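re the bet — no i am not wrong, look at it urself. input seq straight from the record:
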Amino acid sequence: MKNITYLLGINLIVLFSIMKVNASNNSFPLVFGNFASLWPYLLVELIIFIFLFIFFQKRCKTSKTQIIDLTYEAKKSNENYKLLFENMIVAIAVIQDNKVVMVNQEMENLSGYSKENLLNLQIKDCVLSEDLEKVLSFHKKILKTNDTDRTCNFRMNRQNKEIRYIQSEVVKINWNKKPALLSLLLDVTNQKKAELKFSATEEKFRLITENISDIIWVINLTQDKISYLSPSMKNLTGYSIDEMQKNNFQKLVNSDYYNNLMEIITKNKKIIENVDNSSSHDRYEMEIKHRNGYATWTETEMKFYKNEQKEVIVICSTRNIDSRKKDEEKINYLLNHDSLTGFINRRAFENILKEYDNPSNYPLTIIFSDINGLKLTNDIFGHNAGDELIKKSTKVLKSFAREKDVFARIGGDEFVILMANTDFEKASLLISKIKEALSKENIYAIKCSLSMGFDVKTSNLQNIQTIKENAESEMYKEKAATGKNIDQQMLQSILHAFYQVVPNEKLHSEYTAKICELIGNKLKLSGNELYTLRESGRLHNIGKLPESLKGTKLDPLDKSKCYPAVSYRILTLFDDTMDIADFVYQHKENWDGSGYPKGLKGNEIPLISQILGLADHYVSLISGLYGHIVSIEEATNIINSLSGINYNPEIVEAFNELIKDSE
């Protein structure tokens, strides 16, 4: 009993000492928590102590020295509590009536205010205005209900105006017999900034993921489950995310694409499963079916890895590459096809030739063909006309095409036909039909025709390249054998067409040729010279042919059209007329050097050109080519007036003799 009384007495003395000390400075240590609420109990304990003290006074031999020692211990304990309070690493504040009434050192550090300043501040001075209402409401709730939810987050205004994020834990206490709040404040600024940064990053990637046109897939291969699917799925497939989760992916692709994709996924899954801390990448192109029936080309990028649970995950990004694939197809088409005819080109033909070279296609026929007169057409009528000649020729070729036949344009005017299961007889018959059909086609005055040759591979022992070379050789043999006749036919054909369009030109050319020959006789030229002179006269205006056949209005006085130059270019295209090309080209030169195209003077001008120039001028005058018909007498006077200027006086004299003879 003595021990119990002794211990109780020590406890009461300690408590009493603490109360006495703290009553002077109006503070309570943190470690007592809601210490002020213990007053009633302390009073009862004090009464009990007095009673026990008197009751056992005589039996208690405790000295005054022992009492003094106990008081000293109580004071020392109080100092320890104060030391602990002041040095806690958590900021502490006691708040009463929305004012700060007690703080520790860490609170000074957190706020930037001194203790004296803090004790003169109100809550509104420390809390950011946007958060003030929230804090006040929270404090009011704690004071009223002492709610178990005692955490409040807000932003603090430090003395230097810096804003810090604070998390406070608040409990209700009694302070000087009035309700108050004990608040522990933690600075969570760095944590909050990290959260905000993470949240912003997360939001950014969420927005990107949900708004990009690519489909983002996250698939747990271990669980065989789609973990995430971006909303862009609907744009590409027509199916919502929910529908895709329920439906089999296999419905989107055909079996070949699906099987290939599964092989890629299985291969990479095994790699990840067998190698720790590994990852792998892959890519696959496939067509995905839209629910409306059409298909879209897509490219899927895949990254495989293990998550923390050692499960194999694949992140897929599927994008629409339909436009790119179509562009690639166009490029591949252009790389392998001739843009004008649509036939494959030489590069593609060589590849297909290798494929066709197998016994199932024997007898395999190769036909080479060359368009006759293409250069002539280009030179006379221009490249547009040449293109039309090519198109008409290829159109006829296509009309005889079978399903497996291959047509290729391997040069400007050369074509190859590859025909499987076609023997010599069938090939010969086909060539005859093609030539007959072409003979009915023409471009302006140029009739369409082809020089053709072929060879047939009937055995695997034969070399396909040799067969190809033989067919090409046969084509050139035909072209050489018929080339001269074809040229003559073409020349007559274009002259015939020219004269049909401009009948007066035929009369003009024939009369000019006659006058040239008569003047040549007066000058006693040789037979060959007379032939050359006559042909020059007959063909000197052939340069007007292109414009006339194209429907262009002729202007004989317009030197800019340079008919002699065009005539020269046309005449050099034919072997039979090449010798007269220079004479026709220079027949507009003048004796005094004032003519064109070269400005030659005197005997620098070939004699044939001198005679042709005078004859052409005379016939133009009397035929009304310059707008009105001139009489022979008047035309003769004009020619004589130009003697020594435009014309050689000797030739003018021969011309006068001719006129006299005709009277």
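see?? Confidence is low (pLDDT under 50) at residues 1-56, 58-64. told u. also The chain has 25 helices and 16 strands. so pay up
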